[in-house]
Design a protein that fits this description.
Blueprint lengths: L11 E4 L1 H6 E11 L3 H8 L3 E2 L4 E5 L2 E5 L2 E2 L17 E4 L2 H11 L4 E11 L2 E11 L2 H24 L1
Antiparallel strand pairs: 1-8, 2-7, 2-9, 3-6, 4-5, 5-7, 8-9
């Protein structure tokens, strides 16, 4: 019998909660990330932040802009690190072309939703989105409050 590989608790590394509040999600993609060693170690420690990040397509390649991976004190002492560097996203050519053509439309953009582990690989879920208007945000908040109230009533009835 072989040893079981150690799997970190849960596979979610970081989530962009603001994106679901600010945008209507039209279509989502899964992309790999090109990372260096110290970045993987800091992701294992959960030191990633996706607020105010976006996807940029340039010269047929997709890039993750604005993501912040905090370096650990114990690693990367011999290397000069940049926590906010641009990181390459690994996607198929057709997916990159689709993202590029859709982001050229007015009001459309591409944002990362979450970083997660898939086996030993780091994946990024990104989505083509359209910005919400103020009244749409209010409507979403009303629905969320109503769902909470329903759940509270059901819990009290038991």
């Amino acid at each position: 019998m072989g040893k079981k590989k150690h799997q970190p608790s849960g596979n979610l590394i970081a989530q962009n909660r603001k994106a679901r509040h600010e945008y209507h999600i039209e279509e989502s993609f899964e992309a790999g990330l090109s990372l260096s060693g110290w970045e993987v170690k800091s992701l294992r420690a959960g030191k990633a932040q996706l607020t105010d990040t976006y996807i940029l397509v340039r010269r047929g390649e997709a890039w993750l802009m604005g993501a912040h991976f905090t370096p650990l004190n114990t690693t990367s002492t011999h290397e000069v690190v940049d926590p906010a560097r641009t990181r390459k996203l690994l996607l198929h050519r057709k997916e990159i072309a689709k993202i590029f053509s859709r982001t050229q439309d007015k009001g459309h953009t591409c944002v990362p939703l979450r970083l997660y582990w898939k086996g030993h690989l780091v994946k990024c879920e990104l989505a083509l989105v359209v910005g919400k208007q103020k009244h749409d945000k209010r409507e979403t908040e009303k629905k969320r409050d109503w769902e909470r109230q329903k759940a509270r009533v059901v819990r009290e009835q038991r």
